């Protein structure tokens, strides 16, 4: 049995909607949700990049100001930050002279499982990054003016690249 000619456009519309719903269901995150998770911490501008699939999410946002709000707990030393993570609190590591990479290494030195958790959040999103974004993210991770922000409940890492006024978001699927 074939559909009458007048039903074919409707069938195509229904298939397009179903396809869009299936693609969205295969993503780990939605852009609006990711923005909502970080926009209370920094004043976001445009989204420069967003990609999510079933196992990872990566995003890059313009940041309008270099200040981190009081809505995220800011710490000046690794030990305090580690305690906050253990308590389930999102933490911004604003430690003079320490890049996000050095902060992660310090956490791993003190508590390997916790350090691996932070590290895996930061590296899991790499699989969703465009090649050009990977290099910029790598540079931000090594920059001592950048700030590592870790959210232990949602298990994502954000790197606030103050020098270039942008925020990288990285998250991988947890088992």
Task: Explain briefly what this protein structure is.
The chain contains 6 helices and 7 strands. By secondary structure, it is an alpha+beta fold.
Task: List the main descriptive attributes of the protein structure presented here.
6 helices; globular; 24% strand; seven-stranded mixed sheet; alpha+beta; 175 residues
Instruction: Give, in spatial order, the strands making up the sheet with the most strands.
Output: 1-2-7-6-5-4-3
Strand content: 15-25%
Instruction: Specify Rg, calculated over alpha carbons.
Output: 19 Å
Number of helices: 6
Reported for the largest beta sheet, the result is:
7 strands, mixed
**Average pLDDT, all residues:** 87
Structural class: alpha+beta
Report the count of strand segments. Answer: 7
Share of helix among residues? 40-55%
Sum up the overall morphology in one term.
globular
**Separation of termini?**
45 Å
Q: Please write the string of helix (H) and strand (E) elements.
A: HHEEEHEHHHEEE
The low-pLDDT segments are 14-23
